[in-house]
Amino acid sequence: MKYLFSAWEELGPLLQGAPLFLFLDYDGTLAPIAATPAKAKILPGNKKILEELSNTLGIKLAIISGREMGDIKSRLGLKNIIYAANHGLEIDGPRIKFKSQVGLKFRKTIKNIHDHLKNKLSEVRGALIEDKGLSLSLHYRMVKDAEVPRVKALFHELVIVPLVKNKIKVTGGKKVLKIRPAVKWDKGKVTLWLLARQQFNQGNKKILPVYIGDDLTDEDAFKALRNKGITIVVGKTSGSYAQFYLKDAVEVGEFLQRIKLCRN
Ligand SMILES: [Mg+2]
Fold first, then answer.
1. Are 39 and 106 members of one domain?
2. pTM of the model
């Protein structure tokens, strides 16, 4: 993997001309990871540059997040962009609205797991359950190290039945365990779908996709965009399908600034 700013000679010309579709994850990408999901705020500079880019001709923006729709929208507060929440199970933006029906059927399973988890983890300090309707996350960043194995064991015990019945998918992440419906839909598929749709709307004009993310669920998008666009992982220098890396959310902002500059 190359450090993105060291590869500018190769990248700069690509970003100058073609219509761009920027896909951005939120946590760890636009907002530094915080102690709890509620505290993860977008860097003010990143918000400002996103707003500018959202009003720049030839640039389309989408936020692809595991967060719930209302949550991610209020954290960005920008109008002219597409929001793909719950890993793409809900999409909302200018002239686009989508909610997975498979996801709706799945709510009952999620609710069950949520209730059981809440019950079992009530005495574990720092365990945080985030119910996002169509998905669920268990955050253990605030749990004492010695207690983490117990939290993980409890989680796996509760998800094993729906997991073997193929009702749900379980993924890890940065101090988090995530449950999603077992549908063939992920950040990679939603990215390809949004890209194809945009290409169709513009009379099949070629569009260059750029995807920036930091965690396991973003790897599906890095894989999907192989040889199709520019993929950037944040905070790692190896062990990713992305072609380039950036160090942190501040550098993501710098990269977006550079895009803006070379489009003027
Ligand atoms: Mg992330």
1. no
2. 0.89
